[in-house]
Amino acid sequence: MGYSSQNLHSEENLVLDLRPHWWTFTPSLAALLGSVVAGVLVLAGTDNQILRLAVAVLVAGCLIWFVTRYVQWATTELVLTTDRLIYRSGVIAKSGIEIPIDRINTIFFNQAIWERLIGVGDLVVESASATGAQRFDNMKRPSDIQNEIYIQKEEQERRRRTRSETPAPAPRGGSDVADRIRQLNELRDSGAITEAEYDETKAKLLGEL
């Protein structure tokens, strides 16, 4: 399930909605498959009940480990919007953090050689918020996430400059209307317009206030 648009603020758009890399639960899956193979071999090759019990306990332990890691993966979410970086995890006991884009200072990532081959790495975000540096482990293509965060920072700054440089519309103040009514009085007094024309035009000017 993706990040709900109901959690977005007005004029805020979703940019990235990511889960950790599948490597997060791969070691536990490999352990589970290995224990199942070992269990099949033991069941087929021996009648020793103690050995069979030990293998059954091993399989159960690996299964619990895999389910735990998978649930952690499925309930962890890294979301980037045009305004915020959001990280949430947990099913029953939830934890999360939100970092405004304009408070992010530096983003860097770590990848070993084999991690580059499968596209996984750890992302670290340093910000001016009270939380300081935040580390997000086993993220997919961390360099792409880094680039996208910088792009959103630049876009936010560009929008801020555009708003500040856009001149405010000149107010239609009462002083302008008063000057025009004064001119209208002079036209009436000079006989350039009739009393009816004066009253009609004055009503329109007063409607502009």
Give a nutshell description of this structure.
With 209 residues, the chain is α+β, with helices and mostly antiparallel strands. It has helices at 26-45, 49-74, 113-118, 142-165, 174-189, 195-207, and strands at residues 14-18, 77-81, 84-89, 95-100, 104-110, 120-127, 133-140.
Give the overall average pLDDT. Answer: 85
The low-confidence runs, each spanning 5 or more residues with pLDDT under 50, are: none
**Number of strand segments:** 7
How would you describe the oligomerization state of the chains in this entry? single chain
Helix-strand category: alpha+beta
Q: What is the helical fraction, as a range of percent?
A: 40-55%
How many DSSP helices?
A: 6
Rg measurement, Å = 34 Å
C-alpha geometry? rod-shaped
Order of helices and strands: EHHEEEEHEEHHH
Strand order of the largest sheet: 1-2-3-4
Largest sheet: 4 strands, antiparallel
Strand content: 15-25%
Euclidean distance between termini CA atoms: 53 Å
Annotation keywords:
3-stranded antiparallel sheet; about 20% strand; about 210 residues; 4-stranded antiparallel sheet
